[in-house]
Design brief:
Radius of gyration of chain A: 20 Å
Largest sheet of chain A: 10 strands, mixed
Shape of chain A: globular
CATH superfamily of the largest domain in chain A: Isopropylmalate Dehydrogenase
CATH class of the largest domain in chain A: Alpha Beta
Largest interface: A-B, 57 and 57 residues
Helix content of chain A: 40-55%
Distance between the termini of chain A: 20 Å
Number of strands of chain A: 14
Order of helices and strands of chain A: EHEHHEHEHEEEHEHEHEHEEHHEEH
Bound molecules: 3-isopropylmalic acid
Number of domains of chain A: 2
Oligomer: homodimer
Strand order of the largest sheet of chain A: 2-1-3-12-11-4-5-10-8-9
CATH topology of the largest domain in chain A: Isopropylmalate Dehydrogenase
Chain lengths: ~350, ~350
């Protein structure tokens, strides 16, 4: 009997509905495996701005620090688009990443055969997609020094600093190499070394790492070429590792290849508590209507069992149930196609539970 | 009778073959229209490293400065990958952009109906693509201060500075808005204003510009979302304007949608001489074999007539001839499909000339 504890942060928009289903599925799967965990709910994002005047209350941070894992829905929405910059809902995400020192964002992008037809890409290109994007999440231009618009010698200007240190690069590359060992053993490190000094250091460290990980093949790719290859030849990637900004862009580009971003999970890892959330947004337009797809959050919960709660068994059980639900033709409206069975957010959760 | 003068820079790899055809087509088209221009050939890139020990000789820069337009093939190749960083072939490109103050890179991305089937995207998605990407080319992190790997307090680190000033942002946005007027009147300004101070200034300037260009509709999009939308819904874009780094990534991503990067031209404009080049690389593996597709360079020459040589008539004539050659089924090997007529680089040039 384990005694793990998780924090659930519903967030805004559809966040409450999708985390509710992911929690139900997690509890049912845990029960089947004789595993138990406790949970508490905390606020962040717009909901926290409304309740406490700040997007990321100290109380939420403290609870997350003490927990074994955090399951998050989605934050933000037009209601909070016009608050002061330091209060914006996104600050909750950036703040959590920093407070928990979540330096690695893992985004597995895999095509569910049952959904491949919904990809914008031709079937023969999309079929082979199985990519793990490892994005550095705690450094780079996201957290460098910056200068908001200011007047210098009569000219208005602004700047931001991109930068990485060797330890930051080493830990993310190490994680990428380790992840590749359980996969095809191939790591593509993406940078812009023909222009950026930061990328040249990144590349140097990656080459040194390559010497240490002899089971892994590391190759380098420029970010512009990578943006092309993800569309032309996505099946050629295994693990893709890159910095925070390039990772933001490339992981979203890669996400749409799958044809169903509502199903994509993510894990943000550090040395302490991990954070798990679907990659889609808070979709305020459909909030509360039972139309949201909970599968991305359910699959994020599976990752939480794998990386933070120490149960590969439960992770695999949830993932297999999701596969089966799709094979059996259940679809929320975002992925619905004629002839299949349209279900609500809650029914989708139940169908997953039925197949555990 | 005009007396315009151009510089041709063949560069490396397939550069000589493709610029030769573009020059032949340009001369033939000019003749038909009673227009004449002179030209001279200059070296840059690996060819210049071999001949003069530097990738961008002063003599080349001077000639370009004095010319009305510069037509470039492609530079670089593995032969020069291991020279000292400051001698790398790419320095020729970055140096030319800076010396000629080419602040705007125009990348029209249009799908030739005859080639749409070669796109990695499904036909119904790709059909409507007609995007003009306007990339800022003379500022941002490409030319900001940077620190190569160095040890500070026992930690090795490196950094690069992204930054823009108001005048830099204004001139590129103005150019984007003007370009939109002859098109669908829609400008999408791409940034990362939820993270970067530079983007927040960019967005502020764009909003002010919107007030001045009432015929144009300006909207904002985050770069990660843009990377998604280019694949999901590329037909929704008209003019896309962005900074140097985001433009590098997004223009290459958008290029592959067309299914035929061998056909895509580019123009780099400033207040003086303009530079015209295909978007593809120097393809050293097929250099000298007559296998290269000259159409991207030929269409770049058309843009040169439009923007630098003052003849919309010749530009349109060349573009129409290229369309017709494709409709008539002529294909270089990169775009060949069974049942069509495979031609060499030179034959392709001749087929275009035959249709002027
Ligand atoms: C909300 C935003 C700050 C965030 C980011 O850029 O990291 C988001 O795009 C993401 O990828 O999680
Ligand atoms: C060669 C390189 C420096 C260049 C760039 O990044 O601008 C290239 O990718 C391009 O887009 O023209």
């Amino acid at each position: 009997m384990s005694s793990k504890h998780i924090v659930v942060i519903p967030g805004d928009g559809i966040g409450a509905e999708i985390t509710a289903e992911a929690l139900r599925v997690s509890q049912a799967a845990a029960k089947k495996c004789g595993y138990s965990f406790t949970h508490e709910t905390k606020q962040a994002g717009g909901a926290a701005i409304d309740a406490y005047g700040v997007p990321l209350p100290e109380d939420t941070i403290d609870a997350c620090r003490k927990a074994d894992g955090v399951l998050l829905g989605a934050v933000g929405g037009p209601k909070w688009d016009h608050v002061a910059p330091e209060l914006r809902a996104e600050k909750a995400i950036l703040g959590l990443r920093k407070s928990l020192e979540l330096y690695a964002n893992l985004r597995p992008i895999k095509v569910f055969p049952a959904l491949a037809a919904q990809s914008p890409l031709k079937p023969e290109i999309v079929n082979a997609v199985d990519i793990l994007i490892v994005r550095e999440l705690n450094g780079g231009i996201y957290y460098g020094a910056r200068q908001e618009a200011t007047i210098v010698n009569d000219v208005e200007l602004a700047w931001d600093r991109e930068g990485y240190s060797r330890p930051e690069i080493e830990r993310i590359l190490r994680l990428a190499c380790r992840s590749a060992i359980g996969r095809k053993g191939k790591v593509t490190s993406v940078d812009k070394a023909n222009v950026l000094a930061t990328s040249r250091l990144w590349r140097k460290v990656a080459n040194e790492m390559a010497a240490a990980f002899t089971q892994v093949e590391i190759n380098h790719m420029y970010v512009d070429n990578c943006a092309m290859q993800l569309v032309l030849n996505p099946g050629s990637f295994d693990v893709l590792v890159t910095g925070n900004l390039f990772g933001d862009i490339l992981s979203d580009e890669a996400a749409v290849l799958s044809g169903s971003i509502g199903l994509l999970p993510s894990a943000s890892l550090g040395d302490g508590t991990g954070l798990y959330e679907p990659i889609h947004g808070s979709a305020p337009d459909i909030a509360g209507l039972g139309l949201a797809n909970p599968l991305g959050t359910i699959l994020s919960a599976a990752m939480m069992f794998r990386y933070s709660l120490g149960s590969e068994q439960i992770a695999a059980m949830i993932e297999a149930a999701v596969d089966q639900v799709l094979v059996d033709g259940y679809r929320t409206p975002d992925i619905y196609q004629q002839g299949l069975t349209k279900v609500s957010t809650e029914e989708m959760g139940q169908q997953v539970i039925n197949r555990l």
